[in-house]
Design a protein that fits this description.
Layout: H1 13-39, H2 44-70, H3 75-108, H4 122-129, H5 131-163, H6 168-176, H7 183-193, H8 206-213, H9 227-253, H10 257-265, H11 270-281, H12 283-299, H13 302-307, H14 317-327, H15 331-358
Amino acid sequence: MAGIRSLKAYASVSDIIKAIAVVIGTVIVSASGFMLLKNNVLSQVPTTVVAIVWGVLSVILIFYSLNLLAQIFPTRVYNKIVPYIFIGPAVLIMGWYLFLPTMRSLLLSFMDKTSTKFIGLDNYKYLFTDRSMVVSIRNTLIWLVCGTGFSVVLGLTVAILAERSHIEKFSKTLIFLPMSISLVGAGVIFKFMYAAKFGGAEQIGLLNAIVVHLGWEPQNWLGKAPWNNLFLIAIFVWLQTGFAMVVLSAALKAVPEEMIEAARIDGASEFRILMQVVIPNIRASIISVSTTILLAALKCFDIVYSMTNGLFGTEVLASQQYKQMFTFQNYGRGSAIAILILIGVSPVIYYNLKEFRNKEAFK
C-alpha cells in the first residue's frame, strides 16, 4: 500500500479539526436518519426515498470520515491501517447480521418455548425423537441427494449435448429460462400441473390429463408419501438445471481441444474421453456447482410451503423451522432447527473456503 499518500510525520491542527468535524457530522447524519426511519413518521414513498438517500450518504460519510481519521497518523501507520478501514465496516455489518443472530439462536435453542427458562438439550432431543422431525430430516436428506444429483447430472448432460448441436444458444436459453422464475412462482405453476380431479371430472392438471388420456385413473401426485417428495424435488431440479448448465458449459469450453483430439487419435471412445479427460478437467466447476445447489436444497422452503405446506409427509427442516417459530410460537425448537441447519451448511462452506484458499490466486 506504499505510496498511497505523500510522506509526512504528523498531521496539522487543521487536518485534525477537519477529521473531528466530519466524524461528528457523520454521527449526526447517521443517527438522525436512523431515528427518523425507526419512528416511521413518514408515509411509504418518502420513507423509501429517505432510506435510499440516507443509506448511500451514510456509507460515503463513514468511509470518508474513517479515511480522514487515518490520515492523522504518520504515513507508515496510515498505509498499514487503511486496508482495514475499507473492510472494517463490511466485517462489522456481517457480524451484526450473521454472527450475533447465530449466537442468539444458539442461546435460544437451550431455552423453553417462551425463551424464559433454561431446559438444556431438550429441544435437540426433540429434533431426533419426534416423528415429524425424523420425517423432516429424512426428507431433507432426500432433497440434498436427489435435488443436487439430478440438477448437476442434467446440467452437465445438457451442456455437453448443446455444444454439439446447431441450436446451442437457443437450447441453452430455454433450459436457463426457469431461473428467472421465483421458487413460489414455480410452485404455483407445478401445482396446476399436478392438480387432480376425481369422479369423472375434466382434468385441469397436465400430468393427470395425460394419464386419463392413456386410459388410467387420475393420481393424487402430492398426496402419496414418499413419492410426493420426488415430485417436489422435480420442481427444484427444473429451476437449478439451468444454473448448472451455464457454469459447466463455460468450464467445458475451457477444456483444451488438443487433449480431446489426442485421446481420439489414441482410439478412446467418446464416453471414455468424457470420464477420463473432460470431467477431471472440469472437476473444480462440478464441485462448485454441486455445493451451491446443495446449500439451496438444504434451505429450500418456498416450494414445500407453496405446494403442500408440509402436509402428506413432505416436511423439510426449513419448513419445520418456520412452523415452530411463527405458527407454534416455539422459539426454542425453532432456534434448535436453525442451528441444525447451520451445522449441515458449515462443512460445505468450510470445503469451499478451503478450495478457494488452495487456488493459486488466493495464495
